Amino acid sequence: MVETGHFALVLAFALALVQALVPLFGARTGNSRMMAVGGPVAVIGFALTVLSFATLATAYASSDFSVANVWENSHSLQPLIYKITGTWGNHEGSMLLWVLILTFFGALVAVFGGNLPATLRANVLAVQGAIGATFFLFILTTSNPFIRMNPAPIEGRDLNPILQDLGLAIHPPLLYLGYVGFSICFSFSVAALIEGRIDASWARWVRPWALVAWMFLTGGIAMGSYWAYYELGWGGFWFWDPVENASFMPWLAGTALLHSAIVMEKRSALKIWTLLLAILTFSLSLLGTFLVRSGVLTSVHAFATDPTRGVFILSMLTLFIGGSLALFALRASRLTAGGLFHPISREGALILNNLFLTTATATVLIGTLYPLALEAITGDKISVGAPFFNLTFGPLMVPLLVVVPFGPLLAWKRGDLLAVAQRLMAAFAAALLAVLVTALFIDGASAFAALGVGLAFWLICGALTDLAVKSGFGTVAPDVMLSRLVGLPRSVFGTALAHFGLGLTTLGIVGTLCFGTEKILSIRVGETVELSGQTLRFEGLYPSQGPNYSEDRGRFALLGADGSSTSEITSAKRLYPVRQMTTTESGIKTIGFSQLYLSLGDQATDGSVVVRLWWKPLVTLIWGGGLVMMAGAAMSLMDRRLRVGAPSRRRKATGAVPAASLP
Amino acid sequence: MTRKQKRLSVIVAGLAFLGAATGLTFYALGQKASYFYMPADLTTTSVQPGQRIRLGGLVEKGTIQRGQGATVGFSVTDTQKSVKVMYTGILPDLFREEQGVITEGAFGPDGVFVADSVLAKHDENYMPKEVADGLKAKGVWQESKSE
Amino acid sequence: MLFCVIAAILTLGASLAVLLPLAGGSKSPSAAGAHDLEVYRDQLSELDRDAARGLIQPAEAEEARAEIARRILHLDNAGPAARAAGPSTTARLVATAAVLAVPLISWGFYSELGSPDLPSQPLSARLAKNPADSSVDELVARAEAHLAANPSDGKGWDVLAPVYLRMQRFSDAVAAYRNAIRLDGDSPARQAGLGEAIANAAGGTVSAEAQDAFDAALKLDPANPKASFYLAMGLAQEGRVPEATAAWQKMLGTLPQDSPWRDAVEQALAESTKRNVAAGEPAKGPDAGDVDAASSMSPQDRQAMIETMVAGLDEKLRQNPRNAEGWMQLVRSYVVLGKADQARDALGRGIAVFGPDSEEARKFTAFAASLGLTATE
């Protein structure tokens, strides 16, 4: 029932329009019936989008080539999992996924937002509806996945082989959950600007949403990085590619938002700044979508390019980013400022965090947009790559990482830096030890590498110190400490876990960049090669046939100390005949936290094969750290304070006013 | 210090920080950005040996030579001029004769371009965007030949 | 029909989502200040928990408590409490517009975009259809699916190979013939077919590889007409026209009187003498003589031959597009073959070559109209 899905999509667009206008009108005129329209419309709109998406996915799963989108991006011989993931492995389908997630979050606000002030809820849903309506219109007019073909072709043109991977099942949905999650923060901000006041429940709602979005975005970026690492066969985990930057900028801004929202919630300070950050973060998400989808940037992600789409997205960007910033300029002065604090305090540390993160976001933004601007103005084509970002982003991140352990230990309002420094002595000693051990005992370690390792240990031990101090380690009896540790608010654990994960990622990056080794050589069957203590023997090339590709598998035996084979690594060159595309499947063997990475090159006429080998020490920590950060966010979300978005009104009756309110 | 002075000093410190970051960013843009050229552009602009640039064009037919081990030599052409490129490493899967390619590196003193990375990422026309634009500007290549 | 019912139900549901809240009772929402108070109370209780756990110093807790208390005192309780929905005219107008917008926008938009009559066509259902109702494409796809599951079915490859040849999927035909030969062994027909496929894949040039295949066919069956014919063609292409002529002459002597190949050979002979006279041969379509020659062949061979020639003409026009006569021949050929889409495509390309306002373009359009073809569907 392909057409049902198409009709559902159109209907969802109509509902999104109603959702954008009616509650807004209701909130302005104080008409509670009109404000109440937002909720049911958001829920039904979500249900219709689900129906539409499910229809498209079914068309993909059943290889219905009467749908042009399926014909262009699928093949009957693909494994079922890639048929299904192919639904969003193309421009049209991925936009449908985007809007599906948008309506999902809108529906969540509608269902769980009963305890929000009615006008705030109506305005939030209206802004969500406006974003949704624009995207629905974009899909229907420029990127409709339901265009039909009659008569239907009998075979499809296959999915881009690079996308035929489990990574496609995970990376885009996570990334979109992150991108689009920030739309809720954006809608709350715009709603507050429309109303001209920030409710106390505002921060309570924005922070969990920022956490959710940040958690998924972290996962999406980490997954995308790992996918590029193993699929592209270049052994790199981050390329400073504009498309990667497009997802990294909202992450940096989102991280800043996460931290400023804490200040706002605890101290009612930084209200205006938080609001602006929420707008900027989602604007960067939209900009990321624009950069990737408009075809301004050519990459694996620019599935197909079409100028009308670019113009549409550009107008959409202008409308939302320009509109919200203009509203901000008009209304921000009406919002009241919050509590005061001393520069040396938790608030001060969080502001420092924000300063570094937003500046880092700005440098990434400049590095990404400058080549586009220059080309538009002078026609010169330049590329801004890793050297630029290493020089600008690096110096900004290092001081930030140095101060991270101080933040959670500082008191609110007025902190005692000296006392905190004393508490961090153990962590500092551990970091110093790590520097010395690295410098003295690891061959070829530069001073830079040793300091990098020290920084990572500083972060890791700093996070542990935070938990130790808060559970009273060393000042109370062990059993009291244990019960205190268990009783700590989940958000404290969340903070510590996230900072711990940051340390792990740092360690992984330093390990891989400073201690990694690589070799390029041509090798014959039976020859061995040694790299960083690992010995490999080339066993030969074996042809093999997959469902929709043929491949030459290069088999390598990993040799133990006695020269016997302990395990096997295979790397393959695959040919996908439908698109006449070759891909390289890298061979990866994980040893501890490190990996041996092997990539097969061309075959020479004399029977030898070019092979590129990398030894990547601690590389898995890069993504492992990302997972730990996600876990930290999840832990924070479980905090009872955040679980209830805003206190329900029923509690008023039970009189849960704390006994000791004022002395 | 009064509260106002304190606030002022915080703001000044913040602005100084932002100024330093901006300066660093633009310094880095001047130093670390690499320009894109096609072979014929090199006759009109002077590129010093050792200066990092991106060189794009088509892989000239019949010029791919495999040397010792993993070193490959080939010529990049825009059909007007061609430049010899040496590269040690594994060529990307999409590297083919007469198809678009972007190499990044610097000229050696002998006039041979030594590339440390070779990109053959492309859109559906099998052409990196920069190369396609360059060829179009030279009137050598037309979009969608089939139409 | 079923679709219309489903669409109507969906529209009804969506309209109700708008209508019901508008028609429902009006709750008077509490003032925003009440919500703020709840949040502050919750903050106070959290503060107490933190203080009890020793997370913050008692002095800090006092200070924080005082601060929250100040916020509570500042609460602006005179927040804009929503008025009960006064049934103003504007409100009624907006409500009516909203309820009507849903069916109007959705049906309006959908009628522009949708294809309500087109059913879903999952591949498995299409392949499971009665073979008599299936198109050639579908039958081939079914055979391909079978062979993908049983790649060692030589008989299957043998059946599919000539079909590919007829469908002009020459490289597939080459692979299929090779598979058939590998699995079921040599036969004159397979080797000759392989040669024909290789030659056609190369645009009609009888390459060394194709010659090998034809030679293998002749070794098995010295009288194989297809192999002899193409080998002579190869000679002619190499410029050894006298030898080619001699070979074709010899064929005429040995071919049985009713052989479908006789006319083709005679045609080729006529061609080769003509070519000797005029070396620069213009692009030409299958003329009456070719079609006559073809008419005496088996239906399959005839079809294949015509299609090969048309494809050849198409290719020539791609390289040498300023040939008005050639374009008209191509359009007519496609119309005769019943390939209206390709005819339309050729017409469009021809017009594009000379520009839509040119003399030729008008001629093309008129010519196409005389064949019952219009530029658009």
UniProtKB/TrEMBL annotation, chain A:
It is found in: Cell inner membrane. Keywords: Cell inner membrane, Cell membrane, Cytochrome c-type biogenesis, Lyase, Membrane, Transmembrane, Transmembrane helix. InterPro entries: CcmF_C, Cyt_c_assembly, Cyt_c_biogenesis, Cyt_c_biogenesis_CcmF. Pfam families: CcmF_C, Cytochrom_C_asm. One of its GO terms (biological process) is cytochrome complex assembly. One of its GO terms (cellular component) is plasma membrane. Residues 314-640 form the Cytochrome c-type biogenesis protein CcmF C-terminal domain. The chain crosses the membrane at residues 6-25, 37-61, 95-113, 120-140, 174-194, 206-228, 272-291, 311-330, 351-373, 393-412, 424-442, 448-469, 490-513, 618-638. The keyword Cell membrane applies. It is a multi-pass membrane protein. The keyword Cell membrane applies. GO terms for molecular function: heme binding; heme transmembrane transporter activity; lyase activity. Residues 88-294 form the Cytochrome c assembly protein domain. It comes from the Bacteria. Belongs to the CcmF/CycK/Ccl1/NrfE/CcsA family. NCBIfam families: nrfE, PRK10369.1. Required for the biogenesis of c-type cytochromes. Possible subunit of a heme lyase. This is Heme lyase, CcmF subunit. The gene is ccmF.
UniProtKB/TrEMBL annotation, chain B:
InterPro entries: CcmE (IPR004329), CcmE-like_sf (IPR036127), NA-bd_OB-fold (IPR012340). Keywords: Cell membrane, Cytochrome c-type biogenesis, Heme, Iron, Membrane, Metal-binding, Signal-anchor, Transmembrane, Transmembrane helix. Residues 29-147 are extracellular. GO terms for molecular function: heme binding; metal ion binding. Pfam families: CcmE. It is a single-pass type II membrane protein. One of its GO terms (cellular component) is plasma membrane. Transmembrane segments: none annotated. Heme binds at H122, Y126. It is found in: Cell membrane; Membrane. GO terms for biological process: cytochrome complex assembly; protein-heme linkage. Residues 1-7 are cytoplasmic. Coiled coil: none annotated. Signal peptide: none annotated. Heme chaperone required for the biogenesis of c-type cytochromes. Transiently binds heme delivered by CcmC and transfers the heme to apo-cytochromes in a process facilitated by CcmF and CcmH. NCBIfam families: PRK13254.1-1, PRK13254.1-5. Belongs to the CcmE/CycJ family. This is Cytochrome c-type biogenesis protein CcmE. It comes from Mesorhizobium metallidurans STM 2683. The gene is ccmE.
Automatic annotation (TrEMBL), chain C:
Residues 144-260 form the Cytochrome c-type biogenesis protein H TPR domain. The keyword Repeat applies. Residues 272-295 are annotated as: Disordered. Gene3D superfamilies: Tetratricopeptide repeat domain. Its main location: other. GO terms for cellular component: cell envelope; plasma membrane. GO terms for biological process: cytochrome complex assembly. It is found in: Cell envelope. It comes from the Bacteria. Keywords: Cytochrome c-type biogenesis, Repeat, TPR repeat. TPR repeats lie at residues 154-187. Coiled coil: none annotated. SUPFAM superfamilies: TPR-like. This is Cytochrome c-type biogenesis protein cycH. It comes from Mesorhizobium metallidurans STM 2683.
